[in-house]
Automatic annotation (TrEMBL):
It comes from Reyranella soli. This is Diaminopimelate epimerase. GO terms for cellular component: cytosol. It is found in: Cytoplasm. Gene3D superfamilies: Diaminopimelate Epimerase, Chain A, domain 1. GO terms for molecular function: diaminopimelate epimerase activity. GO terms for biological process: lysine biosynthetic process via diaminopimelate. Keywords: Amino-acid biosynthesis, Cytoplasm, Isomerase, Lysine biosynthesis. Its EC number is 5.1.1.7. It comes from the Bacteria. Transmembrane segments: none annotated.
């Protein structure tokens, strides 16, 4: 039986199937991506990650990100830490640069987690705040965007390589995110759809965050969503430029640097190594 190896990894429970196409290309049609990501028909994951040869000299690897709906995304914070750790391991180094369709992401090992795997800081690039960059359909102040449903109103827009709308609420757990998330994701206000974050202030420098991810649904953690939430809360004067974000799967520390880049620090995990039947790829 012909098989293709894969790694199953996760960052705070946001889980990935990682395929390596650096030496031999894989023919991943949207339908094949959907099947691999499907938890009944394939392996199952929140995002399918494909490693490819970098096209920029400074980069160590190119990371392609696919959502379970088969669509491609420009950023995935949790997967970036996982991929960085794989390449650091291969190269016996504590620093690598991960290339994505949105840019180059410098990644640094900063310590070891309680699971014996590295804790990694990724420079997720600049937070983009102009309405055209989110993007949204009409000119507006992205600190107060004119879109919402029911208890979710007046969000902050941030592009972290992918589009986010962060809504501030008193009780994140009480929000029916599975019902409201898809409606907001597909609202015509967001021409490229959007990741929908629901953030609750827990203290001076602490947020709770739940995210309905574009093309994926509710996940246990969203790294780019955590970056967007701290940028949003900081713009609203709710937290300083560095804060902890508590997600269902664990905590990320986020810092919005003076040059507008956003630094995300957190752990990673390897679940298992497996073999994908080639029939899923043909
Ligand atoms: N899980 C991710 C984000 C994945 C992409 C997102 N669903 C999108 O379509 O933009 C993260 O950790 O950032």
């Amino acid at each position: 039986m012909a098989t293709t190896p894969f790694l199953k990894m996760h960052g705070l429970g946001n889980d990935f199937v990682v395929l390596d196409a650096r030496t031999a290309a894989l023919d991943l049609t949207p339908e094949r991506r959907r099947v691999i990501a499907d938890r009944r028909l394939g392996v199952g994951c929140d995002q399918l990650i494909v490693l490819e040869p970098p096209t920029e000299r400074e980069a160590d690897v190119f990371m392609r990100i696919y959502n379970p709906d088969g669509g491609e995304a420009g950023a995935c914070g949790n997967a970036t830490r996982c991929v960085a750790s794989v390449v650091m391991d291969e190269r016996k180094t504590d620093h690598v640069t991960v290339q994505t369709i949105a840019g180059l992401l410098d990644s640094q090992k900063t310590g070891m987690g309680s699971n014996g795997l590295p804790v990694i800081s990724v420079d997720m690039g600049p937070a983009r705040l102009d309405w055209r960059e989110i993007p949204v359909r009409e000119a507006c102040d992205t600190n107060h965007m004119p879109v919402g449903i029911g208890p979710l109103q007046d969000p902050v827009g941030t592009n972290m390589g992918n589009p986010h709308a962060t809504f501030f609420v008193d009780d994140a757990a009480a929000i029916p995110l599975a019902e409201l998330g898809p409606k907001l994701e597909h609202d015509r206000f967001f021409p490229e759809r959007a990741n929908i974050g629901v953030a609750q202030l827990l203290g001076d420098d602490k947020l709770r965050l739940r995210v309905w991810e574009r093309g994926a649904g509710i996940t246990l953690a969203c790294g780019s969503g955590a970056c967007a939430a701290v940028v949003a809360a900081s713009r609203r004067g709710l937290v300083p430029r560095r804060a902890d974000v508590i997600l269902e799967g664990g905590t990320l520390t986020i810092e919005w640097l003076r040059d507008d880049h956003v630094l995300m620090t957190g752990g990673i995990a390897v679940a298992f190594k497996g073999e994908l039947d080639r029939s899923l790829l043909t």
